[in-house]
Amino acid sequence: VNIFYQPHLHEGRFFLDPEESRHCVKVLRKKTGEEIRLTDGKGSFYRAVITTADPAKCTFTVLAVEEELPRSYSIHIAISPTKNSDRIEWFVEKCVEIGIDRITLIECENTERAYLRKDRLDKVAISAMKQSIKARLPVIDEITKFADIVSGGQEAKFIAYVDAENPVTLKSAAPPNSAYLVLIGPEGDFTPVELQTALQHGFKKVSLGTSRLRTETAGMVACHTLQLINAG
Amino acid sequence: VNIFYQPHLHEGRFFLDPEESRHCVKVLRKKTGEEIRLTDGKGSFYRAVITTADPAKCTFTVLAVEEELPRSYSIHIAISPTKNSDRIEWFVEKCVEIGIDRITLIECENTERAYLRKDRLDKVAISAMKQSIKARLPVIDEITKFADIVSGGQEAKFIAYVDAENPVTLKSAAPPNSAYLVLIGPEGDFTPVELQTALQHGFKKVSLGTSRLRTETAGMVACHTLQLINAG
Question: In what order do the strands lie in the sheet with B74-79?
Protein backbone atom coordinates (compact mmCIF):
# COMPACT_ATOMS: atom_id res chain seq x y z
CA VAL A 1 0.00 0.00 0.00
CA ASN A 2 1.38 3.39 -0.99
CA ILE A 3 0.25 6.47 0.89
CA PHE A 4 1.06 9.92 -0.44
CA TYR A 5 1.55 12.96 1.77
CA GLN A 6 0.05 16.39 1.17
CA PRO A 7 0.11 18.43 4.39
CA HIS A 8 -2.02 21.24 2.90
CA LEU A 9 -4.75 19.04 1.48
CA HIS A 10 -7.45 20.44 3.75
CA GLU A 11 -6.59 23.94 2.45
CA GLY A 12 -7.44 22.87 -1.07
CA ARG A 13 -4.05 21.78 -2.38
CA PHE A 14 -5.29 18.98 -4.59
CA PHE A 15 -1.92 18.07 -6.08
CA LEU A 16 1.24 16.27 -5.00
CA ASP A 17 4.47 18.15 -4.36
CA PRO A 18 7.29 17.57 -6.91
CA GLU A 19 8.98 14.67 -5.12
CA GLU A 20 5.71 12.87 -4.43
CA SER A 21 4.51 13.55 -8.00
CA ARG A 22 7.67 12.02 -9.42
CA HIS A 23 7.35 9.00 -7.16
CA CYS A 24 3.68 8.52 -8.05
CA VAL A 25 3.91 9.00 -11.82
CA LYS A 26 7.51 8.04 -12.71
CA VAL A 27 8.32 5.33 -10.19
CA LEU A 28 4.91 3.77 -9.53
CA ARG A 29 3.63 4.61 -13.05
CA LYS A 30 0.21 5.71 -11.86
CA LYS A 31 -2.05 6.93 -14.67
CA THR A 32 -4.83 9.52 -14.89
CA GLY A 33 -8.03 7.94 -13.57
CA GLU A 34 -6.24 5.66 -11.09
CA GLU A 35 -7.04 5.81 -7.41
CA ILE A 36 -4.47 6.81 -4.78
CA ARG A 37 -4.49 7.10 -1.00
CA LEU A 38 -3.18 10.17 0.83
CA THR A 39 -2.76 11.59 4.28
CA ASP A 40 -2.42 15.17 5.45
CA GLY A 41 -0.38 14.09 8.48
CA LYS A 42 -3.01 15.82 10.61
CA GLY A 43 -5.27 12.87 11.30
CA SER A 44 -7.04 12.22 7.99
CA PHE A 45 -6.71 9.65 5.22
CA TYR A 46 -8.05 10.49 1.77
CA ARG A 47 -9.06 8.34 -1.15
CA ALA A 48 -8.58 10.27 -4.39
CA VAL A 49 -8.48 9.80 -8.17
CA ILE A 50 -5.66 11.19 -10.35
CA THR A 51 -6.90 13.92 -12.74
CA THR A 52 -3.51 14.72 -14.35
CA ALA A 53 -0.68 12.19 -14.06
CA ASP A 54 2.00 14.91 -14.38
CA PRO A 55 5.39 13.81 -12.92
CA ALA A 56 6.03 17.43 -11.83
CA LYS A 57 2.59 18.19 -10.41
CA CYS A 58 0.21 15.30 -10.16
CA THR A 59 -3.33 16.58 -9.55
CA PHE A 60 -6.22 14.64 -8.03
CA THR A 61 -9.84 14.87 -6.87
CA VAL A 62 -10.79 13.67 -3.40
CA LEU A 63 -13.38 10.87 -3.30
CA ALA A 64 -13.57 10.19 0.45
CA VAL A 65 -12.07 11.25 3.77
CA GLU A 66 -11.52 9.04 6.81
CA GLU A 67 -10.47 10.43 10.18
CA GLU A 68 -8.09 8.50 12.41
CA LEU A 69 -9.63 8.28 15.88
CA PRO A 70 -7.81 10.37 18.47
CA ARG A 71 -6.09 8.37 21.22
CA SER A 72 -6.71 8.64 24.95
CA TYR A 73 -3.05 9.40 25.59
CA SER A 74 -0.15 11.26 24.03
CA ILE A 75 3.58 10.58 24.06
CA HIS A 76 6.18 13.33 24.03
CA ILE A 77 9.84 12.34 24.27
CA ALA A 78 12.49 15.00 24.85
CA ILE A 79 15.89 13.58 24.03
CA SER A 80 19.47 14.70 23.74
CA PRO A 81 20.85 14.36 20.19
CA THR A 82 23.45 11.63 19.75
CA LYS A 83 26.98 12.29 18.51
CA ASN A 84 26.25 10.08 15.52
CA SER A 85 23.20 11.57 13.79
CA ASP A 86 22.19 8.19 12.29
CA ARG A 87 21.24 7.07 15.77
CA ILE A 88 18.80 9.88 16.41
CA GLU A 89 17.30 9.44 12.93
CA TRP A 90 16.82 5.79 13.73
CA PHE A 91 15.12 6.77 17.00
CA VAL A 92 12.71 9.01 15.08
CA GLU A 93 11.89 6.27 12.56
CA LYS A 94 11.21 3.63 15.21
CA CYS A 95 9.12 5.91 17.45
CA VAL A 96 6.96 6.97 14.51
CA GLU A 97 6.35 3.30 13.66
CA ILE A 98 5.51 2.47 17.27
CA GLY A 99 3.47 5.67 17.74
CA ILE A 100 4.60 9.05 19.09
CA ASP A 101 3.07 12.54 19.15
CA ARG A 102 5.99 14.85 19.72
CA ILE A 103 9.78 14.75 19.80
CA THR A 104 11.90 17.56 21.22
CA LEU A 105 15.67 17.54 20.90
CA ILE A 106 17.18 18.91 24.06
CA GLU A 107 20.53 20.49 24.79
CA CYS A 108 21.80 19.25 28.14
CA GLU A 109 25.02 19.91 30.01
CA ASN A 110 26.57 16.69 28.64
CA THR A 111 25.11 16.92 25.13
CA GLU A 112 27.99 16.52 22.68
CA ARG A 113 26.18 17.63 19.55
CA ALA A 114 23.73 20.50 19.73
CA TYR A 115 23.18 20.84 16.00
CA LEU A 116 20.89 18.62 14.03
CA ARG A 117 19.30 18.93 10.63
CA LYS A 118 15.62 19.12 11.45
CA ASP A 119 14.73 18.76 7.75
CA ARG A 120 16.42 15.31 7.79
CA LEU A 121 14.41 14.25 10.84
CA ASP A 122 11.16 15.52 9.29
CA LYS A 123 11.91 13.50 6.17
CA VAL A 124 12.54 10.35 8.22
CA ALA A 125 9.30 10.94 10.15
CA ILE A 126 7.23 11.46 6.97
CA SER A 127 8.66 8.32 5.41
CA ALA A 128 8.00 6.25 8.57
CA MET A 129 4.44 7.66 8.84
CA LYS A 130 3.69 6.64 5.25
CA GLN A 131 5.38 3.27 5.66
CA SER A 132 3.41 2.39 8.80
CA ILE A 133 0.16 3.83 7.37
CA LYS A 134 -0.47 6.47 9.99
CA ALA A 135 -2.38 9.73 9.51
CA ARG A 136 -0.61 11.85 12.09
CA LEU A 137 2.88 13.24 11.63
CA PRO A 138 4.50 13.84 15.00
CA VAL A 139 5.71 17.33 15.81
CA ILE A 140 9.52 17.56 15.87
CA ASP A 141 10.79 20.62 17.70
CA GLU A 142 13.98 22.53 17.06
CA ILE A 143 16.70 22.02 19.63
CA THR A 144 15.54 23.33 23.01
CA LYS A 145 17.50 24.20 26.13
CA PHE A 146 17.05 21.80 29.05
CA ALA A 147 15.86 24.72 31.23
CA ASP A 148 13.04 25.46 28.76
CA ILE A 149 11.74 21.92 28.45
CA VAL A 150 11.55 21.29 32.21
CA SER A 151 9.46 24.41 32.81
CA GLY A 152 6.78 23.28 30.33
CA GLY A 153 3.54 21.67 31.48
CA GLN A 154 2.29 18.17 30.86
CA GLU A 155 0.22 15.74 32.93
CA ALA A 156 2.68 12.98 33.59
CA LYS A 157 6.34 14.06 33.55
CA PHE A 158 9.28 11.71 33.91
CA ILE A 159 13.04 11.94 33.80
CA ALA A 160 14.93 8.74 32.96
CA TYR A 161 17.90 8.56 35.27
CA VAL A 162 20.16 5.68 36.14
CA ASP A 163 21.42 5.47 39.69
CA ALA A 164 21.70 2.99 42.51
CA GLU A 165 18.69 4.34 44.39
CA ASN A 166 16.22 4.22 41.56
CA PRO A 167 13.92 1.25 41.85
CA VAL A 168 10.85 2.95 40.28
CA THR A 169 10.32 1.91 36.67
CA LEU A 170 8.46 3.95 34.05
CA LYS A 171 6.18 0.95 33.60
CA SER A 172 5.04 1.08 37.24
CA ALA A 173 5.01 4.89 37.58
CA ALA A 174 3.10 5.92 34.46
CA PRO A 175 -0.71 5.98 34.76
CA PRO A 176 -2.68 4.99 31.64
CA ASN A 177 -4.58 7.56 29.52
CA SER A 178 -2.28 10.50 30.18
CA ALA A 179 -0.25 13.09 28.34
CA TYR A 180 3.30 11.90 28.95
CA LEU A 181 6.59 13.73 28.72
CA VAL A 182 9.77 11.71 29.22
CA LEU A 183 13.25 13.26 29.31
CA ILE A 184 16.10 11.13 27.96
CA GLY A 185 19.63 12.33 28.66
CA PRO A 186 22.88 12.17 26.67
CA GLU A 187 25.71 9.65 27.12
CA GLY A 188 27.06 10.74 30.50
CA ASP A 189 23.45 11.30 31.60
CA PHE A 190 21.86 14.38 33.12
CA THR A 191 23.95 16.24 35.70
CA PRO A 192 22.85 16.16 39.36
CA VAL A 193 21.80 19.82 38.97
CA GLU A 194 19.64 19.02 35.95
CA LEU A 195 18.06 16.13 37.85
CA GLN A 196 17.29 18.44 40.79
CA THR A 197 15.79 21.07 38.49
CA ALA A 198 13.52 18.48 36.89
CA LEU A 199 12.40 17.10 40.25
CA GLN A 200 11.59 20.64 41.41
CA HIS A 201 9.40 21.06 38.34
CA GLY A 202 7.33 17.99 39.17
CA PHE A 203 9.18 15.39 37.11
CA LYS A 204 9.37 11.90 38.55
CA LYS A 205 12.67 10.02 38.37
CA VAL A 206 12.25 6.64 36.66
CA SER A 207 14.37 3.76 35.46
CA LEU A 208 13.77 2.01 32.12
CA GLY A 209 14.83 -1.40 33.40
CA THR A 210 18.04 -3.05 34.50
CA SER A 211 19.87 -2.79 31.18
CA ARG A 212 22.27 0.01 30.39
CA LEU A 213 20.84 1.47 27.19
CA ARG A 214 22.21 3.87 24.61
CA THR A 215 20.42 7.22 24.37
CA GLU A 216 18.41 6.34 21.26
CA THR A 217 17.51 2.89 22.65
CA ALA A 218 16.35 4.44 25.93
CA GLY A 219 14.11 6.87 24.01
CA MET A 220 12.57 4.10 21.96
CA VAL A 221 12.11 1.84 25.00
CA ALA A 222 10.34 4.68 26.86
CA CYS A 223 8.00 5.22 23.90
CA HIS A 224 7.18 1.51 23.59
CA THR A 225 6.67 1.14 27.35
CA LEU A 226 4.03 3.90 27.27
CA GLN A 227 2.36 2.32 24.25
CA LEU A 228 2.19 -1.03 26.06
CA ILE A 229 0.66 0.59 29.15
CA ASN A 230 -2.16 1.96 27.00
CA ALA A 231 -2.56 -0.66 24.29
CA GLY A 232 -0.96 -3.67 22.64
CA VAL B 1 33.61 1.70 31.58
CA ASN B 2 35.46 -0.49 29.10
CA ILE B 3 34.86 -4.22 29.09
CA PHE B 4 37.09 -6.54 27.12
CA TYR B 5 35.96 -9.82 25.63
CA GLN B 6 37.81 -13.12 25.84
CA PRO B 7 35.45 -16.03 25.12
CA HIS B 8 38.02 -18.65 26.11
CA LEU B 9 39.03 -17.10 29.42
CA HIS B 10 37.71 -20.00 31.49
CA GLU B 11 39.95 -22.34 29.46
CA GLY B 12 43.02 -20.42 30.58
CA ARG B 13 43.43 -17.94 27.73
CA PHE B 14 44.77 -15.08 29.83
CA PHE B 15 45.42 -12.69 26.95
CA LEU B 16 43.40 -10.47 24.65
CA ASP B 17 42.92 -11.30 20.98
CA PRO B 18 44.76 -9.01 18.51
CA GLU B 19 41.90 -6.55 17.95
CA GLU B 20 41.13 -6.24 21.66
CA SER B 21 44.86 -5.97 22.49
CA ARG B 22 45.25 -3.11 20.03
CA HIS B 23 42.20 -1.35 21.42
CA CYS B 24 43.39 -1.79 25.01
CA VAL B 25 47.04 -0.81 24.56
CA LYS B 26 47.07 1.49 21.50
CA VAL B 27 43.72 3.24 21.74
CA LEU B 28 43.07 3.30 25.48
CA ARG B 29 46.82 3.40 26.32
CA LYS B 30 46.53 0.91 29.17
CA LYS B 31 49.85 0.10 30.81
CA THR B 32 51.29 -2.98 32.52
CA GLY B 33 49.99 -3.08 36.09
CA GLU B 34 46.69 -1.36 35.25
CA GLU B 35 43.40 -3.06 36.00
CA ILE B 36 40.91 -4.04 33.29
CA ARG B 37 37.47 -5.64 33.28
CA LEU B 38 36.57 -8.54 31.03
CA THR B 39 33.75 -10.88 30.20
CA ASP B 40 33.75 -14.33 28.66
CA GLY B 41 30.27 -13.80 27.18
CA LYS B 42 29.22 -16.93 29.07
CA GLY B 43 27.92 -15.28 32.24
CA SER B 44 31.06 -14.11 34.05
CA PHE B 45 32.77 -10.76 34.57
CA TYR B 46 36.46 -10.72 35.49
CA ARG B 47 38.64 -8.13 37.13
CA ALA B 48 42.24 -8.51 35.96
CA VAL B 49 45.60 -6.76 35.96
CA ILE B 50 47.69 -6.32 32.80
CA THR B 51 50.98 -8.27 32.95
CA THR B 52 52.28 -7.32 29.47
CA ALA B 53 50.82 -4.31 27.71
CA ASP B 54 51.60 -5.72 24.25
CA PRO B 55 49.43 -4.20 21.49
CA ALA B 56 49.48 -7.54 19.64
CA LYS B 57 48.88 -9.82 22.63
CA CYS B 58 48.05 -8.13 25.88
CA THR B 59 48.37 -10.59 28.75
CA PHE B 60 46.71 -10.35 32.16
CA THR B 61 46.21 -12.11 35.50
CA VAL B 62 42.69 -12.57 36.87
CA LEU B 63 42.06 -10.98 40.27
CA ALA B 64 38.36 -11.77 40.75
CA VAL B 65 35.39 -13.38 39.03
CA GLU B 66 31.76 -12.33 39.35
CA GLU B 67 28.90 -14.41 37.93
CA GLU B 68 25.86 -12.73 36.42
CA LEU B 69 22.76 -14.24 37.99
CA PRO B 70 20.74 -16.40 35.60
CA ARG B 71 17.30 -15.04 34.75
CA SER B 72 13.97 -16.78 35.31
CA TYR B 73 13.11 -16.49 31.63
CA SER B 74 14.76 -16.65 28.24
CA ILE B 75 14.00 -14.87 24.99
CA HIS B 76 14.55 -16.47 21.60
CA ILE B 77 13.50 -14.49 18.52
CA ALA B 78 13.44 -16.19 15.12
CA ILE B 79 13.27 -13.56 12.41
CA SER B 80 13.42 -13.32 8.65
CA PRO B 81 16.44 -11.35 7.40
CA THR B 82 15.62 -7.95 5.91
CA LYS B 83 16.50 -6.98 2.34
CA ASN B 84 18.71 -4.22 3.74
CA SER B 85 21.23 -5.91 6.05
CA ASP B 86 21.69 -2.71 8.14
CA ARG B 87 18.21 -3.25 9.50
CA ILE B 88 18.85 -6.74 10.83
CA GLU B 89 22.18 -5.60 12.30
CA TRP B 90 20.33 -2.81 14.04
CA PHE B 91 17.80 -5.36 15.35
CA VAL B 92 20.65 -7.45 16.80
CA GLU B 93 22.25 -4.41 18.47
CA LYS B 94 19.03 -3.23 20.08
CA CYS B 95 17.95 -6.67 21.28
CA VAL B 96 21.34 -7.28 22.88
CA GLU B 97 21.05 -3.94 24.71
CA ILE B 98 17.51 -4.75 25.85
CA GLY B 99 18.37 -8.37 26.65
CA ILE B 100 18.03 -11.46 24.47
CA ASP B 101 19.30 -15.04 24.69
CA ARG B 102 19.09 -16.35 21.16
CA ILE B 103 18.47 -15.09 17.64
CA THR B 104 17.73 -17.37 14.71
CA LEU B 105 17.51 -16.04 11.18
CA ILE B 106 14.77 -17.87 9.34
CA GLU B 107 14.13 -18.44 5.69
CA CYS B 108 10.42 -18.12 4.98
CA GLU B 109 8.42 -18.32 1.77
CA ASN B 110 8.47 -14.50 1.41
CA THR B 111 12.05 -13.95 2.63
CA GLU B 112 13.82 -11.84 0.02
CA ARG B 113 17.35 -12.31 1.26
CA ALA B 114 18.45 -15.66 2.55
CA TYR B 115 22.13 -14.87 2.89
CA LEU B 116 23.57 -12.94 5.79
CA ARG B 117 27.08 -12.54 7.10
CA LYS B 118 26.88 -14.16 10.50
CA ASP B 119 30.36 -12.83 11.39
CA ARG B 120 28.99 -9.28 11.00
CA LEU B 121 26.06 -10.05 13.30
CA ASP B 122 28.36 -11.66 15.89
CA LYS B 123 30.54 -8.55 15.82
CA VAL B 124 27.53 -6.29 16.36
CA ALA B 125 26.36 -8.51 19.23
CA ILE B 126 29.79 -8.52 20.93
CA SER B 127 30.06 -4.75 20.65
CA ALA B 128 26.53 -4.24 22.06
CA MET B 129 27.22 -6.71 24.89
CA LYS B 130 30.34 -4.80 25.90
CA GLN B 131 28.66 -1.43 25.49
CA SER B 132 25.71 -2.40 27.69
CA ILE B 133 27.96 -4.20 30.21
CA LYS B 134 26.43 -7.64 29.94
CA ALA B 135 28.18 -10.95 30.58
CA ARG B 136 26.21 -13.15 28.24
CA LEU B 137 26.61 -13.12 24.48
CA PRO B 138 23.41 -14.31 22.81
CA VAL B 139 23.60 -17.27 20.47
CA ILE B 140 23.09 -16.27 16.84
CA ASP B 141 22.16 -19.20 14.62
CA GLU B 142 22.94 -19.64 10.94
CA ILE B 143 19.98 -19.23 8.63
CA THR B 144 17.39 -21.93 9.33
CA LYS B 145 14.47 -23.15 7.26
CA PHE B 146 11.04 -22.20 8.57
CA ALA B 147 10.10 -25.90 8.70
CA ASP B 148 13.03 -26.61 11.03
CA ILE B 149 12.37 -23.79 13.48
CA VAL B 150 8.67 -24.62 13.95
CA SER B 151 9.38 -28.23 14.83
CA GLY B 152 11.72 -27.23 17.69
CA GLY B 153 10.60 -27.25 21.30
CA GLN B 154 10.24 -24.31 23.68
CA GLU B 155 7.82 -23.58 26.51
CA ALA B 156 5.95 -20.59 25.18
CA LYS B 157 5.84 -20.36 21.38
CA PHE B 158 4.34 -17.47 19.45
CA ILE B 159 3.99 -16.44 15.84
CA ALA B 160 3.50 -12.72 15.17
CA TYR B 161 0.86 -12.42 12.50
CA VAL B 162 -1.18 -9.47 11.39
CA ASP B 163 -4.75 -10.13 10.35
CA ALA B 164 -8.23 -8.85 10.99
CA GLU B 165 -9.15 -11.65 13.37
CA ASN B 166 -6.18 -11.33 15.67
CA PRO B 167 -7.09 -9.55 18.88
CA VAL B 168 -4.65 -11.46 21.14
CA THR B 169 -1.53 -9.47 21.91
CA LEU B 170 1.84 -10.95 22.90
CA LYS B 171 1.61 -8.88 26.09
CA SER B 172 -1.60 -10.62 27.17
CA ALA B 173 -0.71 -14.10 25.89
CA ALA B 174 2.83 -14.53 27.27
CA PRO B 175 3.10 -15.91 30.81
CA PRO B 176 5.98 -14.58 32.96
CA ASN B 177 9.05 -16.71 33.77
CA SER B 178 9.05 -18.80 30.62
CA ALA B 179 11.32 -19.79 27.78
CA TYR B 180 9.88 -17.82 24.87
CA LEU B 181 10.22 -18.31 21.16
CA VAL B 182 8.66 -15.68 18.89
CA LEU B 183 8.60 -15.97 15.11
CA ILE B 184 8.78 -12.71 13.14
CA GLY B 185 8.01 -12.87 9.44
CA PRO B 186 9.38 -11.02 6.40
CA GLU B 187 7.78 -8.05 4.64
CA GLY B 188 4.77 -9.73 3.07
CA ASP B 189 4.42 -11.79 6.25
CA PHE B 190 4.17 -15.54 6.72
CA THR B 191 2.08 -17.40 4.16
CA PRO B 192 -1.22 -18.96 5.29
CA VAL B 193 0.44 -22.38 4.99
CA GLU B 194 3.33 -21.30 7.24
CA LEU B 195 0.84 -19.93 9.77
CA GLN B 196 -1.08 -23.24 9.74
CA THR B 197 2.13 -25.23 10.19
CA ALA B 198 3.13 -23.12 13.19
CA LEU B 199 -0.32 -23.45 14.78
CA GLN B 200 -0.16 -27.23 14.32
CA HIS B 201 3.16 -27.22 16.18
CA GLY B 202 1.69 -25.46 19.19
CA PHE B 203 2.53 -21.87 18.32
CA LYS B 204 0.02 -19.23 19.38
CA LYS B 205 -0.86 -16.45 16.94
CA VAL B 206 -0.29 -13.02 18.49
CA SER B 207 -0.36 -9.38 17.48
CA LEU B 208 2.29 -6.86 18.57
CA GLY B 209 -0.16 -3.96 18.78
CA THR B 210 -2.14 -1.86 16.36
CA SER B 211 0.81 -0.35 14.49
CA ARG B 212 2.12 -1.75 11.26
CA LEU B 213 5.78 -2.40 12.03
CA ARG B 214 8.77 -3.19 9.86
CA THR B 215 10.31 -6.64 10.38
CA GLU B 216 13.22 -5.40 12.51
CA THR B 217 10.94 -3.15 14.57
CA ALA B 218 8.53 -6.02 15.19
CA GLY B 219 11.40 -8.21 16.40
CA MET B 220 12.66 -5.54 18.77
CA VAL B 221 9.15 -4.76 20.05
CA ALA B 222 8.56 -8.48 20.76
CA CYS B 223 11.83 -8.68 22.70
CA HIS B 224 11.05 -5.55 24.75
CA THR B 225 7.47 -6.70 25.44
CA LEU B 226 8.79 -9.96 26.95
CA GLN B 227 11.35 -8.03 29.01
CA LEU B 228 8.61 -5.78 30.37
CA ILE B 229 6.44 -8.78 31.28
CA ASN B 230 9.28 -10.13 33.41
CA ALA B 231 11.04 -7.00 34.64
CA GLY B 232 11.40 -3.29 34.12
Answer: B139-145, B102-107, B74-79, B179-184, B156-160, B204-206
